[in-house]
Amino acid sequence: MPKKKPNIMIIMTDQQRADFLAGQGFGIDTMPFLESLASRGVWFESAYTSMPICMPARISMLTGRYPKAHGMIANWKPIAARYGQDLIQVLREQGYELALLGKHDSYVTEEQFDVWCDYSHTSGLRRDGRQKEDAEFDQWIVQLAAWVSNEPTPFPLEYQYSVRIVSDAIEWLNEKKNKPFFAWLSFPEPHSPYQVPEPYFDMFPPSEVPEPVAGPEALEGKNYQWQFQYHAIKHYHPECDGIWRRYRSNYCGMLRLIDDQLERLISVMEERGFLQNTIIVYLADHGEFCGDYGLYRKGLALPQCTIRIPMFWFGGPIQPCWGYHPAHVSITDVLPTLCEALNVSIPKGVQGRSLWPLLTGKPYSQKEFSSVYVEHGIGGRVLTKEDNVGFGAEADTVYIDGEARTNFDGTRVATSGFRRAIIKGKWKLIYDTDLPLEIYDLEKDPWELNNLAQDENISRVKEELISELLYWSVRLDDNLGVKRYSVEMPPHNWYR
Hints:
By secondary structure, the chain is an alpha/beta fold. The chain has a domain at 7-223 and 241-364: 3-Layer(aba) Sandwich (Alkaline Phosphatase, subunit A). 26% of the residues lie in helices and 17% in strands. The protein has 13 helices and 14 strands. The protein has helices at residues 32-36, 54-63, 67-70, 87-93, 131-143, 161-173, 224-236, 244-271, 304-307, 334-341, 356-359, 412-415, 459-475; strands at 7-13, 41-48, 97-102, 115-118, 181-186, 278-284, 311-314, 325-330, 371-379, 397-400, 403-406, 417-424, 427-432, 435-441. The strands form 3 sheets. It has an 8-stranded mixed β-sheet with strand order 4-3-5-1-6-7-2-8, sandwiched between helices. A 4-stranded antiparallel β-sheet has the order 9-12-13-14, covered by helices on one side. Strand 10 (397-400) and strand 11 (403-406) form a beta hairpin. Helix 6 runs parallel beside helix 8. The longest helix is centred in the middle third of the chain and has 28 residues, at 244-271.
């Protein structure tokens, strides 16, 4: 008999930091259920986004290509992503039933899926008998203007999008027959607006949340892009310096709410026997500042808090790995990994690497996974104070009932230029043509407050990091447009 194809489920959060977990040393146990699953799969200690902005990162996951290759370098429309064959097309050809349950923020369309339950940060499916109340909840969310709520959400728990998404998923799973399925279950949270109902609002009191690693005073050692971002936030939200405790409290409450919904979902999957034949990957599209350096949300530079993501694979044939796996991996690695899991060819133009040998206990190239690459920026010259770019310039402002608000998810100043980061072991290099080189020892200085780029004692390390950046820059030249010849790809898309 032919081997039964595994079900596949991607569970994605939006803007979740990798370090806000008890297992990472965070002072609050935000997601006990998720972490309780760690011994049943492979949790990567050094997993990274391709770019710390929603749309570019999500398109990288779907296509296995970095933003400079797929072409979407910001949350812009119309979406004109470049790729050969993406995850959705691969799975459709393999006979999978396809379901979107949650936020996609990408180029995919309803016509490509068998089940389409689309949510955003400010809207969800209107439920039978609750259309009026659901509309009122959406309006309340909109009025928060992507900011922090100082009061518990005045709607019951079942109105939260994460709860409704899991309810949609369970209803769909309960109707499943024998056809293999792919589900992209995508929570809009813990992205802003930062709101949560009781009991989560008071679950982690503001007085008990761990403090930011540094406040706005640390911006004196950063470049103008960082400083402008802070002043943009403060311009629209003068109270920002005094609200960080509530902000972090709400954020942690949102994580626990998601965790409880995960437990609800996984319990149903276990009862129905799905876990035995379902490959599940839990990950985020990117992280966020959450008050560090006095900043909110994401879209600026390449600090660890915004580029490092949780990534955990379990279920089906995944072989448990005790402790955190040390490999440096990327969101771009999801597509080639699933291709190899299904024993199908990795599509042309894919730049990510298959993690399948790592997930199934096979030998792997430690050199191949000794480093990881991240990019950011819209190109051009880095804007400075002398450019006198005012707040609200170039679509940085949205309006809520006529009141101006900034999106600060990457203002024109913050995203000008084009920077690259290499993380190799404990070392990190950030390069931009217009800005000073940055090198950090992440073991001694995980918050990147002490730039060692000019330290002669690490000259050899500096050479190695620059060489690694050159390697990645050349490796990621896009060969999608090659027509005359067939490009030979190495096994697993590993080049080293």
